Model the fold of this input.
Amino acid sequence: MKGLILSGGKGTRLYPITFTRAKQLVPVANKPVLFRVIEAIRDAGIDEIGIVIGDTGDEIRQAVGNGRRWDVTIRYIEQEAPLGLAHAVKISQDFLGDDRFVMFLGDNVIEGGISPLIRQFADSGWNSQVVLTEVDHPQQYGVAELDNERRIVRLVEKPRNPPSNLALVGIYMFDANIFQAVNSIKPSWRGELEITDAIQWLVDQGCQVHPYIHRGWWIDTGKHIDLLEANNRVLAELTHRTEGYVDRDSKLDHLVTVERGAEVINSVVRGPAIIGEDCRIINSYVGPFTSIYHDTVVEDSEIEHSIVLDHSRIVGIPSRIEDSIIGRDVEITFSPIKPKAYKMTLGDHSKVGLL
Done:
C-alpha cells in the first residue's frame, strides 16, 4: 500500500496563525500535525507517501524534506488550486498507480493511529474503507447514512438536514476503482470534486465500501478551539521526560516534558505540559495543557491551557494567560496599568504591550 496526505489549503479558519505558516505545520504538543500524520502512516508499515501541496508547498517541502528522518520516501504532488479532495486523488494517479492506498488529511489527529485499519483493509477484498465517527454537529462534515446491516447507503457533504451523526473522519482507503470514480463525477456547487461524491459513485456501482466507526477521539485541527483540544489530548497521552535543566527551586510533576537545552528556573510547571528545546522558563507558572515551543522565553508570567509557538517572549505579565494560541516571534510585555484577564490569538511576528 501507499500513503497519500492532503496538505494544501490556506487554513483560513486558523487566521492569523496561518497567515505565515502552513496549517499542517502548526505544532500540537510541540510536534507539527503533519509530522504526526506521517508517523501514523509509517507506523502502519507504509513507506511510500505522496503529499499533495498547494500555496504553502515550499514551506511543506522545507519542513518535511525527502522523508529520510522517518525512513520513508516522500513525493510531492502539486495541486494548482483547492479543487476538492477527489481532485487531489485524481492528480495523484501517476504516483499511486494500481496500488491500494490510504488517504489522510494532513491536519487531522486521531487516537490510536491507523495500523489496525490498514491491516484490516489490506487483508480484505473491499474496494474502499471509510472511517466514520459520531459528532455533535454533523452538518459541518461529510455524513454517512447506513442501512440496518451497517452498510453505507448514502454520503452527503455538509448537509443541512443530516441523515445521521456519523461524520467522515478524513481517513479513507481505496483501491484503483477510485480513479474511475473521480473521473466520473462533476464539481459540486462549491466548484470542487467532492470525495463524498466519489465514494457515493463506488456505492452506486456496487463496489464494496466498508464503514469503520472509530470509537476513540478524533480532531480536525482547523479551528482555534479544536487545535487547543488536540493539544490537550496529545499531551495527556505523552510519555513525559526531562532532558533539559531544572533548578532545585522549581517544581515539576511527573506529567511534564522538558526538552533538551531548555531551562526551568524558580518556576512551577504542572502537567500535562511540554517545554520545548532551548526555552527558558524563569520565575513563572506554566499550567496544565500547555505547550511552549522551541526558543521561547516565559519570565515573571503565568500561562495555562495554551499553545505558544517558537521564538516568542512573554515577560512580566501579572495576570494569567489562558485559552490562547500565540504565534512565532511574538513579544508580550507588561505596561504599568494592571489588566484583569487575557485571552488572545496572536499572529506571527506580533508585538503586544498589555495595558
Q: What stands out?
A: The longest helix spans residues 224-237. Residues 2-223 form a domain with the Spore Coat Polysaccharide Biosynthesis Protein SpsA; Chain A fold (CATH 3.90.550.10).
